[in-house]
Design brief:
Layout: E1 21-24, E2 28-34, H1 38-45, E3 59-60, E4 63-64, E5 70-72, E6 75-80, E7 83-89, H2 93-102, E8 110-113, E9 118-124, H3 126-134, E10 146-148, E11 154-157, E12 164-170, H4 171-181, E13 186-188, H5 190-199, H6 236-244, E14 250-258, E15 268-271, E16 277-287, E17 290-298, E18 306-308, E19 311-316
Parallel strand pairs: 1-13
Antiparallel strand pairs: 1-9, 2-7, 2-8, 3-6, 4-5, 6-7, 9-12, 10-11, 11-12, 14-17, 14-19, 15-16, 15-18, 16-17, 18-19
Length: 326
């Protein structure tokens, strides 16, 4: 299979519909970036144009080391002229803050984990938007659009063909919103939320996978998380070379597999009956009778029967497709 992943993989099945659910996202945390140089410093570190991005948007970006290996996939919330919040998995908040602080040098910027003072919710289903509206809150329609009300609570429309939002804000205010949504939305668990992310092809980087992938391997170019026209940032040379020299030999696919236990991030993927790895798991969640996962695979292996641990799996592209970005 060529680097232009088109042929039959372009007819990607639509992800299954989502029920009306409310999720407490305890595995998600906030890193506050504050100061006169907050925006310019993050612009120098991340793969997207932080200086120019629309304040009504929530920017998805990437943070890499000088080798171009992903350390984090932050989502940026524009909370003020000198205040940006980064949405990240809880387990990598501290190392991400420490690394950003290390290279800040004389930049007028400070990093403060939100801790228990901030909370995040996930909402899905058609009724979720109506329930937000009933509370007097906006439910953005466009992918990555963000609305921030006067109380500082941000609502983000996720890049998913199905209706899904994330909500982030001060804990007491978010708890009041959660109480107001409880009658309209059934409670979901965090594993269920990760399963929805996986079905939408939305990756996350955690401790086990930090430093393992180049941004395009997890399809961040397909998710508008890389600006190929902006200035320098760590890993830019590798990311640009991967694009312009046509060296994208691995892409992230959705795996549907059998087995009682889902794989863990970092687990190897093999062709069925072979001990030679052809990929690596990015994330996984259990389903009824098996699991669903995101995995970075060699392109030529994506059409083969695959094995992950003791389970058998098959790959399909994410709902946004895998044609190379322009």
């Amino acid at each position: 299979m060529s680097a232009n992943v088109s042929n039959e993989h372009d007819s990607t099945p639509a992800p299954p519909p989502v029920p009306n659910r409310l999720f407490a996202l305890t595995e998600t945390a906030i890193l506050h970036v504050e100061g006169a140089d907050a925006r310019s410093y993050l612009h120098s570190q991340f793969s997207t144009d932080v200086q120019a991005y629309d304040p009504a948007a929530s920017l998805l970006s990437s943070y890499s080391d000088p080798r171009g290996r992903l350390l984090a996939i932050p989502r940026l919330l524009p909370l003020g002229a000198e205040h940006i919040a980064l949405v990240l998995p809880t387990e990598i908040i501290e190392p991400t803050a420490a690394r950003l602080q290390k290279y800040a040098l004389r930049a007028r910027v400070a990093f403060r984990p939100g801790g228990d003072d901030w909370r995040s919710l996930g909402l899905c289903g058609e009724a979720a938007g109506d329930a937000l509206a009933a509370l007097g809150r906006s439910a953005p329609v466009q992918a990555n659009a963000c609305s921030i009300d006067g109380d500082g609570v941000a609502v983000v429309r996720l890049p998913d063909p199905r209706p899904r939002w994330s909500l982030h804000g001060p804990a007491e205010r978010v708890e009041r919103i959660a109480s107001g949504l409880a009658d309209a939305l059934a409670e979901g668990d965090e594993v269920g939320w990760r399963r929805l992310d996986i079905e939408a092809g939305l990756p996350r980087i955690v401790t086990a996978t930090s430093g393992r992938f180049v941004a395009q391997m997890v399809n961040l170019d397909r998710l508008a998380a890389i600006d190929f026209h902006k200035g320098c940032y760590p890993g830019q040379e590798v990311i640009a070379r991967t694009r312009y020299l046509g060296r994208i030999k691995r892409r992230m696919f959705i795996l549907e597999g059998s087995g009682e236990t889902p794989p863990a991030p970092g687990d190897g993927v093999h062709r069925e009956g072979s001990e030679q790895p052809v990929g690596e798991v990015v994330d996984a969640a259990p389903t009824e009778g098996g699991f669903v996962a995101l995995a970075v695979l060699r392109l030529e292996a994506a059409e083969s029967p695959l094995q992950v641990g003791a389970g058998v799996a098959h790959a399909q592209p994410p709902p946004y497709g895998l044609d190379e970005a322009d």
